[in-house]
Amino acid sequence: MRENNGAPKLQVQDIHIDFGGLRALLGVSVDVHEGEIVAIIGPNGAGKTTLLNAISGVYHPSRGRILLDGQDRTFLPPSRVATLGIARTFQNVALFRGMSVLDNIMVGRHCHMRTGVLSAGLFWGLAQREEVRHRAAVERIIDFLEINHLRKAPAGTLPYGFQKRVELGRALAAEPKLLLLDEPMAGMNLEEKEDMARFILDVNDEWGTTMVLIEHDMGVVMDISHRVVVLDHGEKIAEGTPDHVRADPVVVRAYLGEAAGGMRGG
Amino acid sequence: MSAVGDTLPKLLLANAQRYGRRKTAMREKAYGIWQAYSWSQYLEQVREFALGLANLGFQRDDKLAIIGDNRPQLYWALVAAEALGGMPVPIYQDAIATEMQYVIDHSDARVVLAEDQEQVDKVLEMRDRLPKVEYVIYDDPKGMRHYSSPGLLSFAQVQEQGRLFGQAHPGYVEAAVDKGQGEDLAIINYTSGTTGVPKGVMLTHRNLIATAASYLQVDPVSAGDEIMAYLPMAWIGDTFFSVVLSFLTGAAVNCPEDPTTVRQDFREIGPTMTFAPPRIWENLLSQAQVKLGDAGWLQRTLCQFFLAVGMQAATQRMEGKPGSLRLRLLTQLGRWLVYGPLRDQLGLRRLRAATTGGAAIGPEVIQFFRAIGVNLKQLYGMTECSAPATVQRDGAVKLDSVGPCIPGVEVKISPSGEVLLRCPGLFVGYYKAPEATHAALHDGWLATGDAGFVDPDGHLVIIDRVKDVSHLLDGSVFAPQYIENRLKFSPYIKEAVAAGHERPYVVAMINIDLEVIGNWAEKRGIPYAGYADLAHNPEVYELILHEIQRVNASLNAPLRIKKFVLLHKELDPDDAEITRTRKLRRRFVYDKYQEIIDAMYAEGIAEVKVRATVTYEDGRTSETERSLRICAVVDGGT
């Protein structure tokens, strides 16, 4: 468990999001501290992905504020959010299927690339030096994620577990301060899940990256997150350490109905 | 041997002086790029690690255990230990915990170098049973951030401390190297041993260097050669090629990026010489065949035609005939159209000398590679004689022999048919096992434990292990390995165990080749869930039956296989059924599968139930039960 010292890295303050008549988030507030892994859980339709989309700038709340490092950035578009150091992965794999693993991860460096069309086209001077620097950064990620043998393989041909890993690699390539992971382990078998959980912990450990993740497998959530936020019908119904949340009767009811005795996993 | 080069560290000093920064000594693919180290850099890295070891109190005759894949750091450490007059003890990186613990403890290692977190975890877990180990050093820092254990250091830390130690003790390493002599022990290699506990083979610098020097007389290597270091460091052959030959000749050694990328790395480097056990050549061949099967009609027909031409030409060359003009013209055409591109695809384009050994290799495997222009030769050797003892010469390759002795090596056959060797590389003894040493040496001759003979041309031919040669009930001589090898020459059969000692006929237990048969099954649309499932399939039984009938046709009538089963699991070193170098541990396997063997000799039993205990790498076990089908073999014709 980490110390929560200083101002939070990310502050979500009382945000509301409506889609027409549907109210997806009703005044949710979450603080995420530097170096923390925070899991967002909740039943289907609870507003988890909506919250993640609000943080990454895809949706803009009708009320409330989102602060990164104390700066208000509630209404920035996703492209600007990315340059501020927020990267994410998606619930469904969103890779360039025909491109190699290497190129897919290289795309993640996009926000750090400075050369213009002309010099990049001529591939001369600064453009060349920059390419070398970015490639070196990407290679460190490839080594870190243990996908050396797949470097040149087209991403679309890889098994699902590896595709998710490449996606994580692409997000890491942006050198994010805050990493948003939308169901990083959905559809994986046990071994793939264990691998992914280890990489998430290693990333947090190696670079101190702050992470917010949505996950359904309670075993995984309890094992890797420092803090858990529970949403239900667009509202935050609980927040705390994994053990605290697991024992919370409100959470149990939201997940399993009135009569159930406990939660899966652990 | 000249005085400058009677130990490996002295050879390294000489190379650093001779080649300096001008020539690459070692490469490693890291972060997607081949990172090169010149001979000066090699020496510098060795020096810093040696100083670091000295700083930790490592002295003459101390042992350094080394566990991991082929990494430059591990080779530097190996030479660093020798520079201080100590001995490296390389250990198989996939050894199970108890085995690893035994070797580390038995070798009296004070320091253990483990490549990465995985290996460190294994060592730390057994730390309280390793009272003699003072330091554990790791190379790859990934995942190691929160580890704290007394005496746990990173490779970089050791070198860092070494630099400080070096400032306080100038000339320390040079002085230590100077004290070294050819008679000093250079390495202790624990042989996995097909029987009993591993034994530590002690070899001196003179052993290694003299053996390499005489090997070079028949198979020259030059400074321009490229060697691939991809076989386990614990195996003497790797030390022989990747350290001794490289040091003697200046040839560069290349470490692959990762065990899973060896094939790609091989192709990128294009080594000029390589050693590979038969299994690897067989894999290359079956991959080529699979790809060929998937190719278009024109390519397939061309390849098949020219491969047949190449085989014919290769056979004639082996028999010493020049071949007809037509054949020679066609071979040249084949070189342009088929052989060159095929060699390139397999990463063998620049290969000048290729050797194989350690087990029997199928004649068609040798013929295939010789047909496409790979100079594949067989050699014979063992750890106790510093790796090679015999090797086939260029232009005098025979399919069934392992070639004549290299200069300085003598061979004779004992009255019981055992191959005896006398050679400059003859080991000093087994570490802390004088009885075993005594048993292996007869008046200066090494008892190899192999049965064989020397043919009229002076080539050594190996038949089987002496202790495995036995008799059937009718008195016919039964050499199980001979039969097993013939079975294993089939691409569909990965391992085979033949039994028949004091029995009326020969039976066999077969491991199918999952990759090849898996591919075969896919093409036929046969679904399967894994090895056990495939091995139970009636169509697979039918396929293997044909293979056995083919082998039977080449065997004398009493030795033909009458019944066989397809084993439910692959023979595994973790279950102690085969050694890490994939040699069958026969007694153990016979005992373990006694019920299956007995059932094959019983009348009218078509199925046998087996309960298997599987041991995982971390020592856990689990039980499974299944029934195996016994298949009777009926041979047509005779």
Note down, in words, how this protein is organized.
With 266 residues, chain A is α/β, with parallel strands linked by helices. Chain A folds into two domains: 1-85 and 177-266, 3-Layer(aba) Sandwich (Rossmann fold), CATH 3.40.50.300; 96-175, no CATH class. Helix content of chain A is 37%, strand content 23%. Chain A contains ten helices and ten strands. In chain A, the strands form two sheets. A six-stranded mixed sheet of chain A has the order 6-7-8-3-9-10, sandwiched between helices. Chain A has a four-stranded antiparallel sheet with strand order 2-1-4-5, covered by helices on one side. In chain A, α7 (190-207) links the parallel β7 (178-182) and β8 (210-214). The longest helix of chain A has 19 residues, at 126-144. With 638 residues, chain B is of the alpha/beta class. Chain B is globular and about 80 Å long. The model of chain B has no long low-confidence stretch (mean pLDDT 90).
SSE map:
The complex is a heterodimer of chains A (266) and B (638).
Chain A: E1 10-19, E2 22-32, E3 37-41, H1 48-55, E4 63-68, E5 71-72, H2 78-83, E6 86-89, H3 101-107, H4 117-122, H5 126-144, H6 160-173, E7 178-182, H7 190-207, E8 210-214, H8 218-224, E9 227-232, E10 235-240, H9 242-247, H10 249-256
Parallel strand pairs in A: 3-8, 3-9, 6-7, 7-8
Antiparallel strand pairs in A: 1-2, 1-4, 4-5, 9-10
Chain B: H1 8-19, E1 24-30, E2 33-38, H2 39-55, E3 63-67, H3 72-83, E4 87-91, H4 97-106, E5 109-114, H5 117-125, E6 135-138, E7 152-154, H6 155-168, H7 172-179, E8 185-191, E9 199-204, H8 205-218, E10 226-228, H9 236-249, E11 252-255, H10 262-269, E12 273-275, H11 278-294, H12 297-318, H13 325-345, E13 353-356, H14 363-371, E14 376-382, E15 387-391, E16 410-413, E17 418-422, E18 429-430, H15 434-440, E19 441-442, E20 445-454, E21 460-465, E22 470-471, E23 477-478, H16 480-488, E24 493-499, E25 506-512, H17 514-523, H18 531-535, H19 538-553, E26 561-566, H20 586-592, H21 594-601, E27 607-615, E28 621-629, E29 631-632
Parallel strand pairs in B: 1-11, 3-4, 3-5, 5-6, 6-7, 10-11, 12-13, 13-14, 25-26
Antiparallel strand pairs in B: 1-2, 8-9, 9-18, 14-15, 16-17, 17-20, 19-20, 20-21, 22-23, 24-25, 26-29, 27-28
Helix pairs in contact in B: 1-2, 1-9, 2-3, 2-6, 8-9, 12-13, 12-14
